[in-house]
Structures are given as C-alpha cells and as structure tokens.
Design a protein that fits this description.
The complex is a heterodimer of chains A (91) and B (416). With 91 residues, chain A is mainly β. Chain A contains one helix and six strands; from the N terminus they run βββαβββ. In chain A, strands 3-4-5-6 form a four-stranded antiparallel β-sheet, with no helix packed on it. The chains are: A mainly beta (91), B alpha/beta (416). The complex binds flavin-adenine dinucleotide and zinc ion (ZN).
C-alpha cells in the first residue's frame, strides 16, 4: 500500500499515521446550542461506509502534513488525496 | 441423531455411510416470532438459547452466506476471561462458565482445551498492573495466578527472557483459559438450535427493515420479505451497514485483523502466550500448527484481507519473544472484518426502534464471548431486560461517559 503525499510523492503506508474519518477535521463549535449532541456525534459516531471512505492521514515519518484521502475500503485503493489545508482536491 | 463414541466407531467400520445431514435446509416462513440476522457464533448461540432457555422456537437465523463463514470460522480460537474492567469482567466470566459444559450440552465436541493463557509483563509496573487485573478476575471466581520471572522461566523456558528492550519479569496465568475448535462451535450451536426447531436459512441476505410507527415488523431479504415480532442483529463486522438500513448510526468502525498458521510441528507450545508489548499472541493447534496473530492493520477495511506491514510486524514480534519459531514455515494467513467500537468493548442492547435488538462491536475478542453473548442476548430479546452479566454494554454509554476502555486509548478504534 502506498499513499501519494502531495508534497513527497508516493510513499510506503508505514510512513503515515491513520487518524480516522475526515470529519474529525471539522470540530463542532463548543458554543453552539446543540454542542453536546454535536460533540457526541463528532467524537463517537461514524458512517463507516463499505465503499468510499474520506479519511485523515498524517505523514508522520515524512513531511508532517495532514492529508485528506478518499479510499475504497473494500479494496484499500486510494482514489484521491489532498493536503488537509487545501480547500479543493489537488488530485 | 445423537452423537457418541460408539457411533463414530460403528461408522468407522461401515465406511462412514451412516451419517445424515446435520441440520435441515428449510424455506423461509412468512413470519417468525424472532429473526436473528447473522449465522455466526453469536447469532447461532442466541437462537439456541432463545429456544432452550426461553422456549421461543419459532425463530429463524438469516445468514447471507453459509453458516460459520464469517469470523466465527476465522479467529484464532482463544477463550479466556482475564479482562480488567467492570462490565467486561462479569460478562467474560459468565461466558467462560458456559464454555465449561458446552460440548456435553450441545452433544457436539467443541474441543475446549484448557491449556491456560499467560499475559506477559516486562517491568515491575506492568506486573503490578497484572496483579490488579488478577484480583479483578479472582473476585469474579475466575482463575488468576501471578508469576514472577523464575516461575515463568520454569514453565515456558524457551522465551527470550533477557531481551534488552522487553525483558520478561513475569506474567498473569489463567489456567481455565485455552482454545476451542472454532468451526465446531458454529456447527454445534447450529445443530442444537435446528434440533429445537430453529430455522437456519442460508444464502439469505437481509437488505432492509420494515419499520412501522417506530416498531420493526420484519425484514426484506434476497429471499423475499419475512415478518417478525422481534429482530436481533448479530452481524459482526457488518454492523454499521445493517444498522444503517434501520436508520441507525453506530460508534463503530470496521477494521481487518489478520492471523497466521505455520506448518504442523511436534507439540512445543502448551499454552496460550500473549506478548502485549510486541502485539503478538500464539498457541499451537491440535494439528500442530502454530497459530498466531497481532494487531489490526489500523485503517478502516471491508476487504477481508490485510497488508504486508502487519505480516512483517507480527513476525518480528514473534521472533523477539521466541526466536525458536524462526525455523517454522508459515503456511497461511488470512483476515477477518471486525466491528471496532470506540472504547474496544462490545454492545448488547435494545435500539431506539422497538423490537430491534443489537449484538455487536466484538472487536477482536468475540469468539470467547459466543456462549455468553448468545445467552445474554437471548435473555434481552425474550424478556426485554438486560441480563445481570451484561448491564454495561449499552449503546448510550458513550453519551453518559460510561465507556469501558481496557486499553485506555480513547475514541480511537484503530488503537484498541
Ligand atoms: C483473525 C481473527 C482472529 C480472532 N481471534 C480471536 C480469538 O482468538 N479469540 C476471540 O475471542 N475472538 C477472536 N476474534 C474475534 C471473533 O472471531 C469475532 O469477534 C466473533 O466471531 C464475532 O461474532 P460472530 O461469530 O457472531 O461473527 P461472524 O461469524 O462474522 O457472524 C456474522 C455473520 O453475519 C452475516 N451477515 C452479515 N451481514 C448480513 C446480512 N445483511 N444478512 C444476513 N447475514 C449477514 C455474515 O455473513 C456472518 O456470517 C478474531 C477475529 C479475527 C478476524
Ligand atoms: Zn509528505
């Protein structure tokens, strides 16, 4: 398994740390009226699709960038990847 | 047909022509009192205990593939009750007690082998933590023996005691733990449930729920609609997918766990050894193969096969703990998809939908839990009440902050 870091190129998956669903990058507003429920969903609930999954990877043993990747979890194939700081997908 | 030693002997003399099919292959009825989704260990055991303990025999188990083709036939067969936290300790204790007479009760040899299970410690602090864990087990009436380094060396002399990074300081032994024949557990429960009148319906995938005014009334399947008074889910690894059909979102991610077996060797490892620091555990099967495994691969997966980094990691951990296995040749490796919950502990509960019950989130440890899980789930479905041995596996424990997190890693399923 290789993941193509936009900064470093295709690298062995062992260089990366898997953080989980990409939704973890969208922390709810703690001041919102529904914050309790929103944080519960944010921390504990997952879509867990059997197909395309949007997920957060950290290039821990590389450039240190956070990446948002879309991966088919039934085949492990990466379909796209971008820097988490980029608004639009770069690939 | 009742099985006995005499039957085996007589059939041996007559070319084994006297065996009949072990269970019926019924067509689904229009309606059942209870439908169980998933013909794995938990689904089959639940159906058996519904019939046997609660007299509810108008029951169907719907299995999308063949009975036992899921994780119940893919695991490394370790049976133990050496957990540490309240919630888990009483449940696994309950399950271990049900294992005791299982072969006799089912009239099917599940080959339970109480060869013990040792958790290893690499520092004085770890040994203290194991002592605490052992006390939790003793309070449940389960076995626990704290071994110092010398005792460990006497029992298991071939370990790498003086590894500079992970020296062995002792361990916690549970003699009542061991292994069982996984397929026999599935087949034994299936046969026993069938004999009590449960319909085992294979190649029947549930594709949707019928829910009227907040109450489940049946399921849609690849073999048509089937009505039900109550429905229990026991679809390990597929829980999020099946629950989503009922509009539920779960605190679960699906991950792949791999396991490995070597060529058959003469008896060498007479217990189950768990090397926590290297994420490695090993036992020897009755056929002689060394059966071992380690961590999950660490990212969501429904692929039912893992990748090479974990193969390498598990092999390294094995070599670090017992260099002698380096000479054995690995025959096979495989993977299974498991529900990893947000705290690493299972969920057995009602759902917000009336009549719909949930059993899942077994992570990598649900085989030992098959008798207990089936028993308490049947109790819940039949009586509507939680069984005293499983009061803490609630769906809402995350909202209440009542998580049961043995590894203390928080809401990170890939690290449990
Ligand atoms: C490699 C590996 C090693 C393991 N080692 C151990 C161990 O040593 N000790 C231990 O205690 N545990 C172990 N486990 C965990 C254990 O195997 C599982 O937790 C347990 O088997 C899960 O429960 P089950 O038997 O009911 O699951 P399964 O056997 O997977 O049953 C679920 C069934 O549901 C069916 N299903 C899914 N969706 C549908 C649908 N829509 N309609 C109809 N049917 C459906 C599936 O086909 C499947 O047969 C291991 C797991 C793996 C993968
Ligand atoms: Zn990079």
């Amino acid at each position: 398994m290789k993941l193509a870091c936009p900064l470093c190129g295709a690298r062995d998956i062992r260089e990366f740390h898997y953080q989980g669903a990409a939704s973890l990058a969208d922390r709810p507003d703690p001041g919102a009226p529904e914050a309790r429920q929103e944080f519960l969903d944010y921390v504990y609930m997952r879509d867990n699709p059997a197909g395309e999954n949007r997920e957060l990877w950290f290039h821990a043993h590389g450039c240190g960038a956070w990446l948002v990747a879309t991966r088919d979890v039934t085949t492990h194939e990466f379909l796209s990847v971008r820097l988490a700081t980029d608004k639009e997908p770069t690939t | 047909m009742r099985y006995s030693g005499l039957k085996v002997f007589l059939n041996g003399l007559t070319g084994n022509r006297g065996w009949a099919p072990v269970w019926r292959d019924p067509a689904p009825k229009d309606h059942y009192d209870v439908i169980i989704i998933g013909g794995g260990g938990h689904g089959l055991a639940t159906a058996y205990y519904l019939a046997r303990e609660h007299g509810i025999t108008n029951v169907a188990v719907l299995e999308k593939g063949a009975i036992g083709s899921g994780n119940v036939g893919r695991n490394t067969t370790v049976v133990r009750a050496n957990y540490m936290l309240e919630g888990n300790v009483e449940f696994y204790s309950h399950s271990l007690k049900l294992w005791q007479n299982l072969s006799a009760e089912l009239n099917y040899n599940v080959m339970l082998s109480r060869r013990g299970c040792i958790l290893l410690a690499h520092s004085d602090g770890q040994l203290d933590a194991l002592a605490r864990r052992g006390n939790m087990n003793l309070m449940q009436g389960d076995g626990a023996e704290l071994w110092d380094g010398a005792t460990l060396r006497r029992h298991i002399p071939y370990l790498n005691f003086d590894d500079p990074r992970f020296p062995l300081k002792g361990g916690l032994m549970q003699w009542e733990a061991g292994t069982a024949r996984h397929d026999a557990v599935a087949w034994g429960y299936a046969r026993a449930a069938d004999r009590l009148g449960v319909d085992l319906i294979q190649n029947c995938e549930v594709t949707g729920f019928r829910i009227t005014q907040g109450r489940v009334t049946g399921v849609d399947t690849t073999r048509g609609h089937i009505g039900a008074g109550k429905v229990g889910m026991a679809v390990a690894g597929r829980s999020s997918q099946v629950a989503a059909m009922a509009g539920l979102r779960l605190p679960i991610e699906s991950h792949v766990l791999q396991a490995f077996v070597t060529e058959g060797l003469k008896p060498v490892i007479d217990t189950v050894i768990s090397f926590g620091m290297g994420h490695f555990y090993i036992s020897q099967s009755d056929k002689g193969g060394l059966v071992f495994g380690g961590d999950i691969d660490g990212y969501n997966s429904y692929a039912q096969r893992g990748n090479l980094p974990i193969v390498e990691h598990v092999a390294e951990a094995g070599m670090a703990l017992m260099p002698m296995i380096g000479r054995a040749r690995m025959l096979r490796s495989w993977g299974g998809i498991m529900d990893m919950t947000m705290d690493g502990s299972p969920i057995i509960d009602r759902t917000p939908i009336d009549g719909l019950f949930f059993n899942g989130g077994w992570c990598y440890g649900g085989f030992k839990a098959v008798p207990g899980g089936g028993h308490v789930f049947a109790h819940l479905i039949a009586t509507g009440k939680l069984h005293p041995a499983a009061t803490k596996f609630r769906l809402d424990r995350f909202a209440r902050g009542a998580v049961i997190d043995e590894e203390a890693t928080g809401a990170t399923p890939n690290l449990h």
